[in-house]
Amino acid sequence: MACGTPLVTTTGSAMAEVTGDAALLVPPGDADALAGALEAALAAGPDIAHRRRLGFEVAGRYTWERSAASHVEVYRSVTQN
């Protein structure tokens, strides 16, 4: 997503929760839905352009700096209690 590539992932996983509307979601094991989502991603229509923009926003939330700060906060909370 950080590179502007449309993401296709399955429902019922953490990826669906993380990506939200930025990804094309398909049910696990549904080959037809997967093929349709991949075709939609390759077609690069207005919906995909919107999802790409959302993808940049989502990816921006997951930086190394934020990850490090989150870990530091967890370690502080554990050591203070």
Automatic annotation (TrEMBL):
Residue ranges the record marks as coiled coil: none
One term of GO molecular function: glycosyltransferase activity
Origin superkingdom: Bacteria
UniProtKB keywords: Transferase
Entries under Pfam families matching the protein: Glyco_trans_1_4
A Gene Ontology BP annotation from the UniProt entry: lipopolysaccharide biosynthetic process
Keyword hit for Protein biosynthesis: no
Protein name as catalogued: Glycosyltransferase family 1 protein
Organism in which the protein naturally occurs: Candidatus Aeolococcus gillhamiae
